[in-house]
Design goal:
With 492 residues, the chain is of the alpha+beta class. The chain is built from 15 helices and 23 strands.
Length: 492
């Protein structure tokens, strides 16, 4: 919550919107309602104006009849012909008195994925909005369809592809998968089934409306040949890059479209997992008389790679990109997080975008269902005393990136808590991402130096500058001034 007693310190940005509303509810607030609900949420201030210098102030005498305006707001937000879903409760709308003048504060949370897209005027194609640094913008059809896919109870990989037959599968991929499963689960009841029945049991084949067997989206992605995969998923692309030499674009690369391998997700996973882990040191250890060849870092990387592939939106653009360098590993996939990032980092909540694919990975002991994948990765990195992994989301197109640093942690924190300070008050944020702390801090403070932000995060200045550069690149914040005088603020 912003400090309303010092309204003049704030400016409109990607989380704050001000409207005079002196003549009643402005029509544009519904675009803002949709935009905040479909992005990260925000605060809508009625009876407030933006001055020529960009600062905020109570407009004229404020709202003369706030209760009447609030009633009008509730009447409209509960009208399905105007707003698709009302996600607000009574506590989200209130009247605030500032120096004898009334304003209305409306806190709009991010909508649960089951309710997105939140749209207005009864038309989801033309009435769906999102928020960026420039204000509210109308979503493209691609962004709208992405939200629709995520809202479905059945995950997108359960779709039975009735226009395809079973000839899309790569036999070597299926053979390899079955051998791996038989080694891990030697007495499994599906081990004796023929390939067609086996694929049906694991969800790679489904029954179409015509009563015949066809590949599912999950089966096609996991075991299909790339040529057939791209017929259904036009933007499908898997890309692994090693960048050990800064003078070269990459020192090694594997792409799904090369034509010299299947190009499917199952084979991609094992091809690049071995490359991701080949530089890891394995200390000598024995368990039950057998040498242990894997460390917790191996397990964490296995989870990270599986999460990236399982949670990708394969109808989205730009494909899956995994980049390994001397200093870090980044895993980027199309599609946003289906749950709040804080909830993912806390654990216990699992909402995979491709649940059938998750089941297939589970059968060969890869992936998890309890929502412990991200917390486990965070814990392992903390044990290694490496810098905390970061998760970022970007829009247009929507993407999620997990960055795993391979360098020692330079933070001053005890690793248990991240703290944010606002107007002299210390606020503890238990497992919040550092970028979210910066955004919250700049929502309250308007602008700050890198040193002030480093103090807020309780990390080193070099780490802080990396975070700030990424936020600038993601178009979330802007930098003003040069060198020692440089300050950062949320983008308007």
């Amino acid at each position: 919550m912003i400090d309303l007693l010092h309204l003049e310190k704030y400016q409109e940005n990607n989380r704050i919107e001000a409207k005079k509303a002196l003549g009643g509810l402005p029509k544009s607030i519904w675009e803002t309602y949709s935009a905040f609900a479909n992005t990260f949420g925000g605060i809508l201030l009625l009876g407030v104006e933006e001055l020529s210098d960009g600062s905020l102030a109570v407009a004229n005498g404020g709202i003369s009849k706030p209760n009447a305006l609030i009633k009008e707001f509730w009447d409209i937000v509960n009208n399905p012909e105007k707003v698709s879903v009302n996600i607000l409760s009574d506590k989200d709308v209130c009247v605030q008195e500032l120096n004898g003048k009334n304003i209305i504060v409306i806190n709009i949370p991010r909508a649960d994925r089951a309710y997105r897209p939140i749209y207005i005027d009864g038309n989801p194609i033309t009435g769906t909005y999102r928020r960026n640094g420039e204000g509210d913008y109308k979503c493209t059809q691609e962004e709208y369809l992405s939200m629709v896919r995520d809202a479905s109870v059945k995950t997108q990989d359960m779709l039975v592809l009735e226009e395809m037959d079973l000839g899309v599968f790569n036999e070597e991929s299926i053979k390899s998968y079955r051998m791996r499963m038989s080694l891990l689960r030697p007495n499994h009841v599906w081990g004796a089934l023929d390939n067609e029945e086996f694929l049906f049991r694991i969800g790679a084949i489904g029954i179409g409306k015509d009563g015949k067997k066809h590949p599912t989206s999950a089966g096609l992605l996991m075991f299909g040949n790339e040529y057939f995969i791209t017929q259904e998923f036009n933007n499908y692309f898997l890309d692994y890059q090693e960048k050990y030499d800064e003078t070269l674009r990459w020192t090694d690369r594997i792409v799904s479209s090369s034509g010299d391998w299947s190009g499917n997700i199952y084979d991609f996973y094992f091809r690049i997992y071995n490359k991701l882990t080949q530089d890891l040191k394995v200390p000598f250890a024995m368990k039950n008389g057998v040498r242990v060849d894997e460390t917790p870092v191996h397990e964490a990387l296995r989870e990270a790679l599986a999460n990236c592939l399982i949670n990708a939106d394969y109808y989205g653009r730009q494909g899956v990109v995994v980049v390994k360098s001397k200093s870090d590993i980044s895993l980027s996939n199309p599609g946003g997080f289906r749950i709040e990032i804080d909830a993912a980092k806390s654990g216990g909540v699992s909402d995979p975008r491709n649940s059938a694919m998750l089941k297939m990975f589970n059968l060969i002991n890869i992936g998890e269902r309890a929502g412990s994948g991200i917390p486990n990765i965070m814990s392992v990195w903390e044990q290694q005393k490496w810098s905390e992994p970061t998760i970022t989301q970007t829009f247009g197109p929507e993407r999620t990136t997990l960055t795993l640093s391979l360098k020692a942690n330079s933070t001053k924190s005890d690793g248990k808590k991240v703290t944010a300070k606002s107007d002299g008050k210390k606020v503890t944020v238990k497992t919040a991402a550092q970028k979210q702390v910066v955004i919250e801090f700049l929502t309250n403070k308007v602008s700050a130096t890198s040193q002030e932000i480093a103090d807020v995060l309780d990390v080193g200045l070099s780490r802080t500058k990396i975070i700030l550069r990424e936020l600038v690149f993601e178009d979330v914040i802007v930098a003003e001034g040069a060198d020692k005088n440089r300050k950062y603020r949320l983008k308007k």
